[in-house]
Queue: 3 jobs
Job 1
Amino acid sequence: QVQLVESGGGLVQPGGSLRLACVASGSIFSRFGMRWFRQPPGKQREWVAGISSSGGTTTYAASVKGRFTLSRDNAKNTMYLQMNSLKPEDAAVYYCYAIRGREEYWGQGTQVTVSS
């Protein structure tokens, strides 16, 4: 079992920045690939970015590439999403996701609001 807890969400003005964190507990974090998803109000959940278990490979959705940076610190069991140049359309609940083979886990989400 893996427990995932997100933090770092909040209200930010357009053009601003936030850093989300996802802390994992309960299993060996470094064995899991990690991803961020988001769900805007009234819309379906969508994939945002992913990082390999070692942290050596990252991938991004086209909508966030160049603005968001994903990283992880396996010694701290934590994944980070640095979000810069935020736009109103980035507003959503952001979810942390862990996967290893058939094992998959979700966090409870953290709200990001982008508004002036």
Job 2
Amino acid sequence: QVQLVESGGGLVQPGGSLRLDCAASGSIFRIYAMGWYRQAPGKQRELVAITSDGPTNYADSVKGRFTISRDNAKNTVYLQMNSLKPEDTAVYYCNADAESYSDYRRDYWGQGTQVTVSS
């Protein structure tokens, strides 16, 4: 199995910055992609950013403000969020498309971390 642990959420004023970290651990055979999703109250979960061996993809709403990066040696993905807006308020979830030594390739999810942008 693969476990994902997120950190870095919190309360920030509009225009501020936060960085989210997500570390994967467990019996990891290979991680194909890692990314971040978010879910605001009353809305569906949406993709924020994802990185793999291919191109990095961002939601249109965060392009130019958020940057995703990955440290393969540490099995960790980061989301640097700048110029935050109140509409970025949501629970942010880490996702990994991964294969473990004990399971087939599938999606794994973190527990979620709250990001609140408010003055």
Job 3
Amino acid sequence: QVELVESGGGLVQPGGSLTLSCVASKAILSFFDMGWYRQAPGKQRELVARIMSGGETNYADSVQGRFSISRDNAKNSVYLQMNSLKPEDTALYYCNRYPERYSWSWGQGTQVTVSS
């Protein structure tokens, strides 16, 4: 089983930036398509960005142009650079395999709160 640990969240003002990190317990991320997901209170978990094993990326319309997903296979890590943050980006952020039906166990996530 692969364990995922997310970090980098915090409280930021609207328009600010954060970079989230996700580290896997095993050196296997390079073989899989990965995604960053988020879940806001009272809402379903949603995919915000994905990166394929070959490096191709794709984003939800709501974050297109503001978020950037990347990976460092040597560090077993996936990152999410978030710019121009909005209050509606407030959520618990997780990384996991893409698509979600192939997900490993979910980690604790990292909380992102955008507020003035």
